[in-house]
Design goal:
Elements: E1 6-10, H1 18-30, E2 34-36, H2 47-57, E3 60-64, H3 70-81, E4 85-90, E5 106-107, H4 112-141
Amino acid sequence: MPDPTLLTVMMPFSGQFRPVYEEIKKASHRHGLKCQRADDIWDHSTIIQDVFSLLYRSFIVVCDFSDKNPNVFYEAGIAHTLGKHVIPLTQHASDVPFDLQSHRYIHYLNNAEGIATMGNRLGDRIFTLLKDQRRNSWAFSR
């Protein structure tokens, strides 16, 4: 069942992305959202089932395309297919695949200031999506 308070993160698991993930968590928590990625849970016997479960249940999916990780591209495709709100991030515009270059993304520098700026921009986007969600749920409840 989809969870309107869940933000899922799809990104490489390497240590160099830890500060990025921490900043994403801060941005999501500022707006009252839970933030998870597949290595935070172990609900199923296969990691791909945990990934799919997170994607299915999430309201927002943040995908970091930095380093052109093929798993993140695959997961972004699933999220788009499920109709999720996908927020792409990248350290390099050249890491965004051709098919996704028409989508807006948040570019960030991989340093403390750049990651903090990314967190603020991500927070702004989360706020907009939540505001739209509340407005739409109010309109449908009338």
